[in-house]
Write a structure and sequence with these properties.
There is one protein chain. The chain is mainly α and about 150 residues long. The protein is about 85% helix and about 0% strand. The protein is built from eight helices and no strands. Helix 6 (about 90-105) packs antiparallel against helix 7 (about 110-120). The longest helix is centred in the first third of the chain and has 28 residues, at about 20-50. The chain is extended, with a radius of gyration of 21 Å.
Length: about 150
Amino acid sequence: MSVNKEKYKKLADKRAVKSPIVKNCVKAFLTGGFICLVGQLLSTLYTSLGIDADTVKMLIPVTLIFVTALLTGFGLFDKIAKHAGAGTLVPITGFANAVIAPAIDNKAEGLVLGLGAKIFIIAGPVILYGTFASALYGAVLWIVSLFG
């Protein structure tokens, strides 16, 4: 039986499409860098309009999330992400897309069972484990400070 598995694995490896890792990494790097450049341009724009620094720090992610939501709604974000890969998925834009896309996909099922129940299907685990990790880190930091 294991001979057949080995033969199958060899055959599958031969036929598998090889991923252009370096090309994908460069695309992801450039796309992620472009998103950061847009964030910096927004910062410069908002600052030049006389907005205080604390408000600018809030407006940049809000603007990026809003633009991502619009692009997701129009079906453009997925087309960009298809070519850019992790460059769009890692920054805040990827998180915004992870919340918006399931909501759009399930809106036909209604506000409660569709949108309400499925909106955090992708982002939910990120929120859960991110919150848990930050609470755990805070607890460890607090315990260390008691003995420091």
